[in-house]
Design brief:
Layout: H1 2-15, H2 31-34, H3 38-72, H4 75-100, E1 108-113, E2 116-123, E3 126-132, E4 138-144
Antiparallel strand pairs: 1-2, 2-3, 3-4
Length: about 150
Amino acid sequence: MRKIIALCSIVATTFVAPVHAAEMVHVFTSPSFSGIGFSSHALTIYSQELSRKLAIAAEKKADELKAENDAKNTTMAKFVANLESRVYNELARQITEKLFEGQGTQASGTFAFNGGTITYTKNGSLIEITIRDANGNVTTMTVPIGDFGWLQP
């Protein structure tokens, strides 16, 4: 038994390497815990949240515009727009005839139309047209009659 213990001690001293030890230090790798790089981490999260919110808002606006355009493209909406255009065209034709035609021309006149007024006055070689809308905005046009070869006063 002595021989076995001696043999074990010789083998143990021969094959055992020196042992080195160091302190174990734990380091967090997540910037949320360590604080190192946290600002860029927070900015990345903020950027992702902001881009998602903007994408949702853009999608909502696109859906609203599509619904609005779909409502404008119905057959009834097209008919109403066409009819309205023709009514305005006829009104403009009648005003033009009153101003420029030889028979039945009027020196001045006023029309109440769609919440606003259209006033015209013919002064020699000029026609002044004043359009006042329902909000009180005023547009004034002065048309020289003598500049048109076929429209002499």
